[in-house]
Amino acid sequence: MTLMDSFAGRRVPPAVTDAGLALLFTAGALVPLVPMPATVPALRTPDALFVVLALLSALPLAVHRRFPLPVLLIMTVAVAALQARHYIPHLSGPQGTSIGPSYMGVATAVLLTARRGAPRTATLVVAAVIPAAAVTEAVLAPAGHRIATLLAEAVLLVGAWALGRLTRARAAIRDQALERAAALERAQEANARAAVMEERTRIARELHDIVAHNVSLMVVQTIAADRIQDRDGAKAHELHGTIEETGRATVTELRRLLDVLRTEDEADADPSKEPPQPTVEALPALVDAVRAAGLTVDFTTTGVPAELPAGSHLTVYRIVQEGLTNTLKHAGHTHAELTIAWERRHRRLTVRLCDDGPRPGEGAVARPADLPDGPGHGLLGMRERIGAVGGVLHTGPRPGGGYCVHAVVPLPASTPAHSPTPPPAPDDPSFDLAGHYEGHSPHASDPRPAGR
Question: Which of 25, 49, 160, 378 could bond 58 through an S-S bridge, CB–CB 3.0 to 4.6 Å?
Fold first, then answer.
């Protein structure tokens, strides 16, 4: 009904469409458009009954949308009465087939009923109403033309019914396509919201790591400056300057991250505003920062660096950052050794950070087995990060004092290797329960291997 229900590209209300059709067919029933041929038997002169029947054969279309089946029945009976009273010519007779306005009105009512009615109503129309109308027309037709009238009526009404069902099916397909498109759009919006929430979670983790590290440095530096204020004013002044720089850096990082959070709420968010993630190459700057806080760190890198995914780069950096922060927090101004070993033969990157524990006479906070719960917090955050990249993490106190963090991050499979030997894993026979490797220990250079 797209053509019938639209005009000049604009949708027309169904009530207006029905009213227009009713007026059109009423005019056609009351005013013949062409003179009847001489071969047509004489028709009865129109009278009051003709006017009533003509109105009943067309005007009910105005309320077809509300009462489809009753309207069709009224119009069909009215047209049959017009023919029986000889007010209109027969559908088929000596003059041939003559499909006048009244018959077209009934066909239109059949089409609209098939288009708008329920499946049960449409079935009733094609199974009962159309056969009854065709048989009635055939009975009223002149002798010798009954079969032709029956076939003409059946073809006309069945064709209208089929066209109505076809337009209904096309409309249903269109509605389903629109519904699927809307569902797909909703799914895309939901995925976009989920991606935004995931990114917010990641930013929150990065925010914790940055703030926890820098604030811990500021606290340690403040304590150190207070202790040497009277003995070495120049050194205290230097520490105060370092505290200021660390604080400014923290504020800068916070602003950058919060700017990302704000732009995520905007429809035209700019991904380029996201701060770059730290990599393994940023470790020397991190070590210099903790050295300025009073921690003595021996930093060693061995092997040839290899390509790492961005996630592995970030994991290594955060593990070292968390380990150094914990050393400052729990062991104070002690000595620590950080080793980054690129082991292409075993396709792994080994990170080893060991400290000597608190210096004699220097108070330190007891180091807990795990830091506060939550993803991205303390040792639990380390394990979560290393697990996400398929690595292994071992932490624990050293037998002679101090604490060790040992992490193994796998290198990508595309990294060239001199041996097909895969990296040892916790379920490898060469890896014992104490976290040591038989034959080749990552702690062979230290007499105090790291515990778990």
Answer: 25
- Angstrom distance (rounded) from CA 142 to CA 84: 11
- Measured CA to CA, the distance from residue 406 to residue 348 in angstroms comes to 13
Lowest mean pLDDT among 112-121, 195-204, 297-306: 195-204
Return the sign of the alpha-carbon dihedral for residues 229, 235, 239, 240. Answer: positive
Query: What is the Cα gyration radius of the chain?
Result: 45
β-bridge pairing 296-302 and 335-343: parallel
Q: Which residues pair with 207 in a beta bridge?
A: none
| Cα–Cα distance, 323 to 340 (Å, whole number) | 13
pLDDT at 203: 67
pLDDT per position as a tens digit, 219-266 = 777 877 777 777 777 777 787 778 877 777 777 767 666 665 655 444
Residues 232 and 248: their CA atoms lie apart, in Å, by 25
Ranges of H-type helices in 39-145: 48-56, 68-84, 101-116, 119-124, 130-140
User: Does residue 58 carry a pLDDT above 80?
Assistant: yes
Residue 432's pLDDT band (boundaries 50, 70, 90)? very low
**Residue among 198, 319, 194, 210 at smallest CA distance from 254:** 210
DSSP for 201-216?
A: HHHHHHHHHHHHHHHH
Q: What is the mean pLDDT of residues 75-86?
A: 88
The answer to whether residues 274 and 260 touch, using CB atoms and an 8 Å cutoff, is yes
Torsion from C-alpha of 249, 253, 255, 258, nearest 10 degrees: -160
Higher-confidence residue: 172 or 273? 172
Note whether 452 and 369 are within 8 A (CB).
Answer: no
Gap between the Cα atoms of 155 and 149, Å rounded: 10
pTM of this prediction?
Answer: 0.42
CB 152 within 8 A of CB 92: yes
DSSP 133-176: HHHHHHHHSPTT-HHHHHHHHHHHHHHHHHHHHHHHHHHHHHHH
| Residues 61, 105 contacting (CB under 8 angstroms) | yes
